Amino acid sequence: MKTNVGEWLQNRSYLMGSKEAFVGKKGRYTFQQMNDRANQFAQYLKVQGMNQGDRVALICKNHEDFVAAFFGAAKIGVITVPINWRLQAKETAYILNDCGARVIVYDDTFSKVIEEIKSDSLAELFICSGKSPHDPSFDEVLNTSSSIVPAYSSHSEDAILIMYTSGTTGKPKGAVLTHSNLFASSIGLTHTVDWWEQDRFLSVAPFFHIGGISPIIANLHTGCTTVLMEYFDPVKVWQTIEEERITTMMSVPAMLGAMLKTLKHANTDYSTLRNITCGASSVPLSMINACKSLRISVQQVYGITEYTGAVTFWKESLDPEKKDSMGKPVMHGGIKIVDLHSNEELPAGEDGEILCSGPQVFKGYWQNDEETAKVLHHGWYRSGDIGRLDEEGFLYVVDRLKDMIISGGENIYSAEVEEALSNHDEIIESAVVGMPDARWGEIPCAFVVKVAESDLTEKGIMEHCKAQLATYKVPRKVVFVDQLPRNAVGKILKTVLKKGDQVAT
What we know:
single chain, about 500 residues, Rossmann fold, GMP Synthetase, Chain A, domain 3, 9-stranded mixed sheet, 5-stranded antiparallel sheet, about 25% strand
């Protein structure tokens, strides 16, 4: 099957060209208007000598210029590299040089970083979304280019995206995703998630994250309207929900928690909001119940960049009693649990490494065959996560393999200890990591954020855990902190905690 992501936008413009497709910072765009913008960018890249397989890097927030650049590049086989705009100049330069981007599109708010990296970058052309004294603006580029449909020069198994991992365990690696990967992922989402043509979807998860960009592709299949937010602000989210009559959105638990805390201050009408899909980590039951009391359903997704997004999905209609699970595989996908040592498939109820298969599995890491070989095994992707399947096929994610603590020969799942800590009324959140110990090899150490004015002590936390856990699982050390370090998509950076870089309060 030949398929090109850019052609999907063209097809959608044929089917419902006058329907509102995207709402951005500069205006509202129908499918036809956005397709014209994508065609203009594609034609501009061709004039600049960009060829199939060349890379264009986007250092942009969620707005219409990113969308046009992504689909335009796809039409002519140019690979898009979304870059985390929260990175420092040195980190950004590493990714740009690793992927060999020839063109960089950036927001004017990141001009300082761009000026720092220009001399060291391999890029030949810089385009500014906004105003720049040195570089052409994105609007100028479009206005001087033809909107004639370009000849499609890339299909199915060709790369369309290089998504760089968050780098929580070292240098970021570029996961190469193909047109067919995105096709399978988007079909899996639209056949599993409750998103429909009449929906108005709020895009707030950043586009440099697979959870930000994959819904945009899925929305092409449903034909719904996507409202783009450049940054997350919980009060602004509630306001946008009211103003744009938002019906559904993607989020992460940290964002959802902030939204619930600010709802009473937002004083807005959220009655149109039907559901919120959450990824990155498991959603606490308290948040699910809080949303349910607001008549908002929570859908959970277990997603992986190297799997082009969603692996499994839970919604209440699958089984309301399994809300603590991550659900079942999305359409066309498969999962299995294997022994950590023998790689033999394990029966239901036993913990092991989660492996996933299907047309969503990525092509490999950009110019890194060694790392690719570590994670691809006979068509299966090794997730590095520990989990188990129950008798009905629901997935329970237990922990990250690298986060498992081995103390005195016993395996301790940090997530299990964190769950015990979350049951304490005076603990807001926590993270448990293994710290080196001469006698035990490793000991569990808990980093805890407690409620304001709490007099909770290390001894009190240990006593609390002893009532719920085996003795060897109880944290041997507790460090109180103001907040836990997170990456740009809300995941806790346990590597930072292990290094001792987190300052105690």
